[in-house]
Design brief:
The chain is an alpha+beta fold. The protein is built from twelve helices and 16 strands. Bound molecules: glyoxylic acid and manganese (II) ion (2 copies). One manganese (II) ion binds next to loops.
Length: 426
């Protein structure tokens, strides 16, 4: 089999080209006329699943949409009851997204299946499943990783009440999409059904680009908390209200956003982002009486991240106290940091090594400040990840990019990683 990969460089380059073309094809499945927008439980979700399911069936895989809307393709081993190695990523996007974050991992997984299958089957003692998760980003409901949490059996019933910007709840969106909320438990996978989870993803920063390397092993994925914050002041006439009588909620929120930057910058590996900010009533001639903003807070270690949140809370008390404002925070997402399993880090490292020139340095090992589906799946099985170079390090933006050559390296490395894993498991 290894000899086949070595001899099959042409086949690998053709596979990488197909991945790029299919990323373009998926980019056309969008709710927006000006960019890529594909959110959970939308008509585009259904269309993308139909398209990806066709690609899976073309490889002889059986397909199903699970109770949370994730798409699962399976290539059985000789024993149809054998546990599965899951390989995948997500098909949902942020707003005005790039075309590779998530999609690349699903399409690379399909090409790995194409390279490794023999006689229409998995040649290993395990089946291979390609999984396209939904709502890794949390774009629609604020809470990220909904689909992969359902697959991990960690769905929280409080999430049914979360609402999108139009006031549609998760429960209602399930029903409109044709999914039955009462059956959510059926999406849960059991640890004994799985061998592990592997994911290829573009790096969402510039490290590999700076190092001049194509691929990296991922060591762990950052922990993340997300909050919706509300600041309450008093709406008053913009002309007639002297400064000493103002309780301007937007200024309180703005000072809070600056405090987020100041406190996080002072820490190593803690990153805070205010990505949404709105003022109410939202009139040019009214002092804002209320402001709402989001906070995305990440860190390599949960405890460190939580210490920064505690310090930030004290800082917000002080800021709002000085300005005569009140504030509150609703936590909408909380995911612990997850380490990639040592064995899967090793097999990914060996996989990458096969793409390097003789005598090259060992592949880089990077921590991921971006979130990934493996954060949920790590609760039920070992996870491993591979990063592909992202020229310029731009992501969550239409300019997100990856080269066909790096995709060819990535899929060769991932296929080799699967071979190494199969050898380890005997
Ligand atoms: C997803 O890409 C995230 O890190 O929020
Ligand atoms: Mn993303
Ligand atoms: Mn992603």
């Amino acid at each position: 089999m290894r000899a086949r990969l070595e001899a099959g460089q042409q086949e690998i380059v053709a596979a990488a080209r197909r991945v790029m073309l299919r990323c373009d094809e998926l980019a056309r499945v969008t709710a927006s006329e000006t960019g890529i927008e594909r959110v959970y439980l939308s008509p585009e979700h259904a269309r993308a699943n139909r398209l990806a399911a066709e690609w899976m069936r073309e490889l002889g895989m059986s397909t199903r949409q699970d109770a949370a809307g994730n798409l699962v393709g399976r290539l059985d081993a000789a024993d149809p009851e054998a546990p599965a190695l899951m390989i995948g990523s997500h098909l949902d996007t942020v707003l005005d997204a790039g075309r590779y974050d998530g999609m690349l991992g699903v399409l690379v997984a399909l090409e790995v299946v194409r390279l490794l299958r023999e006689d229409g089957r998995s040649p290993f003692r395990f089946a291979i499943e390609v999984v396209a998760f939904w709502d890794e980003e949390g774009t629609r409901f604020g809470k990220a990783l909904l689909g992969s949490s359902a697959a991990a059996g960690t769905w929280d019933d409080r999430w049914w009440a979360l609402q999108d910007a139009e006031g549609v709840s998760v429960r209602q969106a399930f029903l409109e999409f044709g999914l039955d909320p009462a059956r959510i438990g059926e999406a849960a996978r059991r640890p004994e059904e799985l061998v592990g989870y592997l994911e290829a993803h573009i790096e969402q920063g510039p490290e590999l680009h700076r190092r001049g390397e194509s691929l990296a092993v991922v060591s762990s994925i950052a922990s993340a908390r997300r909050f919706q914050l509300v600041v309450e002041g008093e709406a008053r006439h913009a002309g007639g209200t002297p400064y000493d009588m103002r309780r301007d909620a937007l200024l309180g929120a703005s000072e809070a956003a600056l405090a987020v930057e100041r406190l996080c910058r002072a820490e190593h590996h803690i990153i805070g982002t205010v990505g949404q900010l709105e003022a109410f009533p939202g009139a040019m001639n009214v002092v804002p009486g209320e402001a709402r903003f989001s906070l995305d807070l990440r860190g390599e270690l949960d405890g460190h991240r939580d210490e920064v949140w505690n310090a930030l809370s004290l800082e917000l008390d002080a800021i709002m106290g000085r300005r005569g404002l009140r504030w509150r925070a609703d936590e909408v997402h909380n995911a612990a940091a997850v380490g990639c399993a040592p064995l899967l880090q090793d097999v990914v490292r060996e996989g990458i090594a096969t793409t390097l020139a003789p005598g090259a340095d060992a592949p880089a090992t990077l921590f991921s400040p971006a979130g990934h589906d493996g954060m949920s799946i790590g609760a039920i099985t070992d996870i491993g990840m591979l990063f592909l170079r992202n020229p310029d390090g731009i992501s969550h933006h239409p300019d997100e990019d990856v080269s066909t050559e790096d995709v060819a390296h990535g899929l060769r490395a991932l296929a080799e990683s699967v071979l190494h894993l199969a050898a380890e498991r005997g």
